[in-house]
Design goal:
By secondary structure, the protein is an alpha+beta fold. The chain contains 14 helices and 18 strands.
Amino acid sequence: MYYDLKFMSVPLPEDIIKLKNYGDFKGAEKLIEHLLSNELPEALRKRLEIEQDIIRIVGINEYPFYFDEASKMMKETFKEYQEQELTVLKETGKVDWLYIDGKIHFQRRFLMNLIKTQADYEARLIVKEDNEVDRLRKQELTQNVQLMKEQGGRKVKIHLKASIQVKKEYERPGEKVKVYLPLPKDCKQVSDIQILKTTPKATFIAPENEAQRTVYFETILEEDQIFSVEYSYTNQVDYVELDPEKASELQPEFELNEELPHIRFTPYLEQLLAEILSGETNPIKKARKIYDFITTKVNYSFMREYFTIENISEYAAVNLKGDCGVQAILFITLCRMANIPAKWQSGLYVSQYYTGCHDWAQFYVAPYGWVFADLSFGGGARRNGDLDRWNYYFGNLDIFRMPANSEIQKDFNPPKRFLRADPIDNQRGEFEYVNQGLPYAYLEVKQELVSMVELV
C-alpha cells in the first residue's frame, strides 16, 4: 500500500500521544484498532493507518538498547568511561533515546553517531579507527574545489554496480518477489545513461525522467539470490560563483509550494525565517543566509527512519540536528518560504574512497538558473576549518554523485503494493513478498564504484 504522506500532518488523538510518549506501543496499537473500528473523518482514518506502521517500525527496529546495554557498549568503546556520562549525554541531547514501556532505550546507531559528531569521544576510543580513508576522501573533495575553479567544471564517466539481497533468516525461496533498485535519472548534470547489465533479467526499467527512477524485478525467489544492476552515465558539473549584484529583479514562481507533511510552512518556521533573513531582499543573499544558518546551527546527526518523523523540516529547526536529507529538506522549505524556488536531489555519493547514500538540494536564482546546495558537506567542511569548501557547496556540487531522485515521497513505476522501507526517498532499493514489504533490517544492500574516468 502506498501512503499519501500528506496525512501525517493530521494531529493524532491525545490519548495515542500519551501512550507513545510513555512507550506503550501495544496500548497505542490497541487504541488505534479501536478507533479504526468506528466511523471517523477520512483524513483522521488515513493518519491512524499510517501511525500503525510508524509504531511498528519505531518499537521493533529503531531503539533496541536498554540503558544498561548502552552503558556497557560505552564502557567497551571509550577510555575512562563513567556510567553517569550516558545520563549526561541523554540530558544534553547528544544521544537519541525514547521510552519503551516506560524504560529508556537508545537508538540503534547512538554509538556510531557519538563517535562521528563528538570529537572528544572519538579521541577516547579504546580501539582507534583508521581515519586514512576519511582523510583521503576530504583531500579528494578539496582537490575537486581547486580543479573546478581552475577548469570551470569537470566531466566524468561513472560505472556503478548496485545489489540487494534478503538476509538468509528472512529468505523464502520459491515465493514470488518484487524487487527495486535505484537508477540514475535524467537531470541537469547527468547524460548518456546506459544500463549495462541486470541479474536476473529486469522485468521493467523506468523512464529516465521518473521522479524516483528504478529497475524492477518480478520473479520467483531462488536460494541465496542476489538482484543487481550495472550502469554507466556521464556526470558534468560546471563551476558557478554566485554574485548577488547580478541577481535579476524578477525571479521565477515555480517550486514554491508546500509538500505535506515535510515541506510545511509552519508558524515557527515563519518566525525563524524572519530572524534569519533580517529584512534581506536579494535572493542570493537570502539563500546564503539560510545556508549559513543550517551549516552553522544544525548539527550533523544520524537519524532514525524518516518515516517515523512527522515533519522533517520543523524537526531539524527545533532540534537543531539532522543528517544530509533532513538538512536538505529544511533548506528547501525555508527557501520556498522566502520565494526562492528549491527542490530535492538524492542518490549516491560515489568515489574511490567511499560509496553510499546521500541527499542534497537545488535552488533557482535568475540569471544563473538551477544551482546546488549541499548542506551536510558544507557544514562538515566548516567544522573542519575548510572555509573554501564550505563556500563552494553554496551554489556548487562535486562530480562524485549518482542522482536517482528529484522529488521526495513519490511512488515507483510500477508501484509497490506494501509500505516501502523508505517511503520518503530511494537510495538503497526495496524488496517485497506477496504478503509483506521488508524493512532494511532484513536486507543486504551494496553499492560499488567500478570505474570513474575523467573526460575532456
